[in-house]
Amino acid sequence: MGLMRPLPSPEQVFLCWLVAQPPEADIVAGARAQMERLAVHRDEAAVRTLKRLFGELIEELQGE
User: Fold this and answer.
1) What does the pLDDT read at residue 42?
2) pLDDT tens digits for 4-56?
3) CA distance 13 to 1
4) What number of CA atoms fall less than 13 Å from residue 59's CA on the CB side?
5) Distance (Å, rounded) from C-alpha 51 to C-alpha 34?
6) DSSP states of the chain
């Protein structure tokens, strides 16, 4: 059954989201919205990693 592909890593998902944002986007607000969406998912390692990546992005951008 070669039709199934592995899921992308949390880092790949995060980077795809980040580069898909338009130049005028409020990245902090978008990252917060993603964290809220993730809050309803089970506490799995991939979800924790994504939450951490979005949280670190928010912290980094607010520190500017």
Assistant:
1) 85
2) 888 899 999 999 999 999 999 999 999 999 999 999 988 899 999 999 999 99
3) 25
4) 6
5) 8
6) -TT--PPPPHHHHHHHHHHTS-TT--HHHHHHHHHHHHTTS---HHHHHHHHHHHHHHHHHHT-
pTM, 2 dp: 0.87
Q: What length does the chain have?
A: 64
Q: Which of 56, 61, 59, 64 is CA-nearest to residue 14?
A: 56
Q: Is 54 exposed, middle or buried (0-12, 13-18, 19+ CB in 10 A)?
A: buried
